[in-house]
What does this fold into?
Amino acid sequence: MLDKYKNSVVYQIYVKSFCDSNGDGIGDINGIRSKLKYIQSLGVKYIWVTPFFCSPMVDNGYDVSDYRNVNPMFGTMADCEAMIKEADELGIGLMFDMVFNHTSNQHEWFKRALAGEKEYMDYYIFRDEKPADWTASFGGPAWDYVPELGKWYLHLFAPEQPDLNWENPKVREELKEVIRFWKAKGVKGFRFDVLNLISKPKDFHTEAGSGTRFCKDGPRVHEFIRELVTDTGIEDMITVGEMASTTLDNSIRYTQPQNHEMSMCFSFHHLKVDFKDGNKFALMSPNLKMLRDYFSEWQEKMSDAGGWNAVFWCNHDQPRIVSRFGDEGQYWKQSAKMLGTFVHMLRGTPYIYQGEELGMTNAHFTSLEEYRDVEAINYYHILRDSGSSEAEALNVLANRARDNSRTPMQWNSGANAGFTSGKSWLGIPDNFKTINVESEEADADSILNYYRKLVQLRKDYPVISEGAIKFLDTGNEKVFAYQRTLDNDKIVVICNFSGQDETISGIDVKGSILIGNYSGSHKIMRPYEALVIKA
Ligand code: GLC
Ligand code: CA
It folds into this structure.
């Protein structure tokens, strides 16, 4: 069952920022259709399309008001059906994004709940007393009072995103129907938003703190997932669960084929190694030891237990990786290629987030007005209220805001980077003049063409798609190395995460070079050098 996607790569599209077909400044489904050939040229097998369903867009579509209809901002159902069909003809399967932990407060169910209909009140989580002072993910309290009902409701994210009550079997049936609906339309897989938050603790009367922390990997989560998957018959499809702050043991359980849960899951510990004291909005340079420890432990133990990882650096919630763990300046190209190499040679299914294959950078916004994301705007005020100066708060956003990855896809050096003929909904970094699809198509040595090779290598070499993994000691904390083995095949991957020459020891590097970002092999690893050797 796993084999279908072990040698595949998934491309993630953030619809609002990918390609605008009608000049309103907002990416749309017909824009995606016009770029399917480009995506095919990357060699990927699947596209994860972020939510384009009806939504008031408080959280850019992660607040769904109708799961079975297309937001007119993005197109029509006919456009959507055409997109599925055209992708299929190009050999690409679409994965749709199911936001099942919560709905929008504009969803029919929540409106009826607020109107006091008992049946729908039981779709959400209402309490007569506020159980504890939990905070929501985008700042502020997680329990809100509804005066008309005299009750409190839970929202782990924005107040406009009330959490669903999965304990209610009717809720689970409704959500299964949504899956069946899209499956019948020819969708080939699903991504499940914050899936490990769906099962809430029995007793909400716990200590104060972050709501998501108390709800992750809850008591019935495995049971709920298995039920959702088996009752809808999607066990054989590609499924990926977004698992907030999950543990290794749970990741193994979520993805072991015999458990019939997910085919793979996202975890995020590697993207917290630059959070000071675990706080996303406190800056720190990446702790490379933590980064390496995470990968070696999770990769090896998932491998031993037969679990499967989704491997990635970027998505629509993360700052751009080249700006974060790489170098936007002198070593832009080398570092982007090194980071790509590291992920694409790992055991798991690699995900490429739109523009990552170009080495797109953070947004470099300098004023609050340029930001659109609810989280960025809330945290700006939280930082200011806790004593940060305007400049400090803006600097934190420039490094951490989700808008950094949501700037429009850079297609060419023309107006608006070729994204829209109108006015883009979000700013575009000046570097689009050089960092864009058109210019990288023309350069044989570009990041884009390098990513194409990475995708192809996974198809060509079973040792990459299927092999076991073991991390190797390089005697240098800044240089990571691992080996992949399958029967008599072996490859060794060495990546320098620093902008300096680094010496390493203890690695046997004899063999031919499969791919690398400098020419010729070397005893000293050059700045951001990546080397893949086939023994
Ligand atoms: C996930 C999504 C993110 C969204 C959140 C709430 O983390 O990736 O964009 O804001 O869930 O739905
Ligand atoms: Ca549009």
